[in-house]
Amino acid sequence: MGFFAYIGSVLNHPRTALLIMLLFLVGYLIFANYGGAFKGKFLRFGPDVNSPEDGQTSFMGIKLDNWKNVIAVYFIMFFVTILKTYYSSVVSHSIEMYVLNTLVELVPFPKFWTYLISIVDPFIKVLLHILDFYAVATFELQYIIPKFIGEYIVDLPYVLSMLKHKKFIS
After folding, report:
1. Which residue ranges make up each domain of the chain?
2. What is the per-residue DSSP string for 64-103?
3. What is the model's pLDDT at position 52?
4. CA dist., res. 9 & res. 1, Å (int)
């Protein structure tokens, strides 16, 4: 095996990709902290007491200046993330896997539902991505944490159930 083939095999291993991502994230967080990213509202929890002129946080036009609105956004982000993760897990591992694979001729789903889901799918994904964007665009960790929790509630059991049926080399 040549030098470049060896480097390619090392870089294309999932373990290497994970280590590179972890190193990047740690480096990014150190750099962001050095730049003052965590001195502002990013780590603040609770309602925003700033006036609108001082850059009050809002979510899709909802002023996050009281606990009722803050908790409502927590729940919105939590459930949007659960739905997004669930939907993309189910659709991408079922219908999309058959429809987008040119080697597959028989789709094991009814034609009507396959067409309907395939036609509506881009709209649903864009809508969920927009809601996702608004949570991240608040630039506050308190609205991003419900996304992490929602993602893990759906994704982790799904992946673990898929792994249960696999065989491994070691």
Report:
1. 1-39, 41-163
2. --SHHHHHHHHHHHHHHHHHHHHHHHHHHTTHHHHHS-TT
3. 60
4. 10
User: How high is the pLDDT of residue 53?
Assistant: 60
Name the phi and psi angles at 138, rounded to 5.
-70, -20
Q: Can you tell me which residue has the tokens 């030098």? A: 3
Supply the pTM of this predicted model: 0.71
CA-atom Rg of the chain in angstroms: 21
Strand partners for 58: 63
Q: What share of the chain is helix, strand, coil (3-state, %, to 5)?
A: 65, 0, 30
Environment class of residue 60 by beta-carbon count within 10 Å: exposed (0-12), middle (13-18) or buried (19+)?
exposed
Q: By three-state DSSP, how is residue 58 classified?
A: strand
Give which of 115, 123, 129 is closest to 85, Cα–Cα. 129
